[in-house]
Amino acid sequence: MNIITSQLTIVFEPPFYKAIFERKSANQYEVAQVTLGTSEPKTPAIIQLVMKNWRNIHFFRKDSYSSRIAIVKHVNPKRQQRLANKAMTHNTSTKAQSTLKEQFEAAKQQRKHLTVTERNCCQQRHYLQKKAKRIEKHKGH
């Protein structure tokens, strides 16, 4: 049986509020980040984000994740409340931050590669235009 656990964390990184989604399964760890805006997000907006826009959220996958996920059948309500309060006081996990940083670096490398190839293509096209113009000039009337 494959168990998937998800966690949503709302973080204020000045000047924006960000939603960090984490999904864990037996051998995968996925993270996604959505910028919510400058004002504090209200509960209906967060619910709408999760319920209606879930398919539009792009997760970054880290395959080399391995951990044991404990199956919890029933948790005492007071303990559940304590765990929720503890989760509210702690910041984003470093694993999520490092995975998001990897995603950012991969996107940056891809952007750099695209820019370099586009620049080379533009230079090649410009060179061919100059060459054609030079050949045209040297032709007789």
State the share of residues found in helices, binned by percent.
40-55%
Strand order of the largest sheet: 1-2-3-4
Mean pLDDT: 84
- Judged by helices, strands and strand pairing, the structural class is alpha+beta
The overall number of domains is: 1
For the termini, the CA-CA separation is: 81 Å
Net shape: elongated
Rg, rounded, reads 25 Å
Low-confidence stretches: none
With helices defined by DSSP (H or I, 4 residues minimum), what is the helix count? 3
Instruction: Assess the beta-strand content as a share of residues.
Output: 15-25%
SSE pattern, N- to C-terminal: EEEHEHH
Q: How many strands appear in the DSSP assignment? A: 4
Protein described:
The protein is α+β, with helices and mostly antiparallel strands. The protein has one domain. Helix content is 48%, strand content 21%. The chain has three helices and four strands. A four-stranded antiparallel sheet has the order 1-2-3-4, covered by helices on one side. Strand 2 and strand 3 form a beta hairpin. The protein is elongated, with a radius of gyration of 25 Å. The termini are far apart.
